[in-house]
């Protein structure tokens, strides 16, 4: 299920036996690949600490400030940028998202895995900044499956659905820049593979 990136673009990494201590684990991929569910299941391990990003988008039904995101105004977001509080930040569909620096530094210093679930644009920014960690791309089995998953949400208009699919195709091409690619065709296998490459399984 897991495939290593082609030789043309892999990032330096500790490898499949990386210890499950003191490191950032970045997971990203196109919308609809199931990366949030994979991350949620991985986060059940007490050695994994979730990154909670800041965003200017309004909360969705059921979301809680400080749990899914830190919801802030655009003015406050700009202040945080000026303060250097973000490792990276990006605009996605008109809203701003940012990964906060201090919580990650604290978690790594404590010897935990700091799990960052982020879009591909943000992941590429962290790579460009040479932020050390394990970078994992979650891919769909195929794009027809991805279309069905996105359509099944019932939250997007046909126009937005097509825009997300075009964006997913562009993001999929970036998978060669990651340390590992996991095809999420079976949820349990995807989580098990992620546990293996982070070293969590070895230290269970």
Q: What CATH architecture label of one domain applies? A: 3-Layer(aba) Sandwich
The main sheet orders its strands as 1-10-9-2-8-3
The CATH topology of one domain comes to Rossmann fold
Main sheet record: 6 strands, mixed
Number of strands: 10
Envelope shape: globular
| Mean pLDDT figure | 87
Would you state the CATH class of one domain? Alpha Beta
Helix content: 25-40%
Beta-strand percentage range: 15-25%
Give the count of helical stretches.
7
Spell out the CATH superfamily of one domain.
Answer: P-loop containing nucleotide triphosphate hydrolases
Rg (CA only): 17 Å
Written as H for each helix and E for each strand, in order along the chain, the element string is: EEHEEEHEEHEHEHHEH
Question: What structural class do you assign from the helix and strand content?
Answer: alpha/beta
Low-confidence stretches: 1-20
Alpha carbon gap, first and last residue: 22 Å
